[in-house]
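Example 3.2
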Amino acid sequence: MDKCVGFTKSKEYICLEDLAHSNTFSSFESVVLDYCGLEQCAPGHHFGPYIRKNYVIHVVLNGSGKFTNQCGSFTLRQGQAFLIRPNESTVYQADHSVPWQYCWIGFHGYRSKEYLNSMGFTEFNPVINVDEYNRIQTVILQILDAGSLCPADELFRMSGLLAILGILIKGNSDDQPSETCKNNIYVKFAIDYMRHNFQKKFKISDLADEIGISRSYLTQEFKAITHMSPQDFLINLRMESAAHQLSCGNHAVSEIATQSGYEDALTFSKSFKKKYGVSPSEYRKNKSYLLCEEEKGQYKNTVPL
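Structure, written as tokens:
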């Protein structure tokens, strides 16, 4: 199993990608950085149609271009940003005369939609104005400089993502609590509870009882915020914890199974292989590494941008 993180740096293109292969942060944090980069596009540079699995925000630093999704086509210039949503087919193209330079962040997390709403993005409006685009470029370059797979740089990358989201929200929001924020108290409690107790054996109905609501209502609200059921969230949380322990420690698989909330090591191993495609023992043998390239497209696992 390839656990490679790619870093490409050329005169016109810089990109750090596939960070999920090295992140020690859970994929079920409020937001998690997947990749970021910066590019001066060639005149008429065209990409798409393409569908992504996460959210991507492009901020135009110079020049202009056109972005197209199911809502229509939008011409963007310096100081504007466009949003690509998961499972959305998009096309975008640099202007032939004044091609754009843009930077981007790709991310996911259960609060992503809430943060994007606070920035002013809507289902029918994928474009916002960005006054502090130069500041965002500076943060992107700082994240790209923190490209090693050590814990310090991982924390720095996470702080950079949060800084960029904060800049975009501050520039396009009245800072009033969103309806999503007001209505997700049960979900936040459920997520906090699972994070602190996933090592223990419990049912989602037990969690619902702890909150004081029915399991069906908890599942309804949970899916609305996270796009998955509480049960799936719990299983994935346990699997990610196990994967981290396998990568960073030397505990026996049976011990990791117990620490991940499984009484039976065989059941744990089956669940782990279902998620990662390999057994816990095989996963342990694969270490994350950084692959550096000098030209766009040389990194074979690359996500086109």
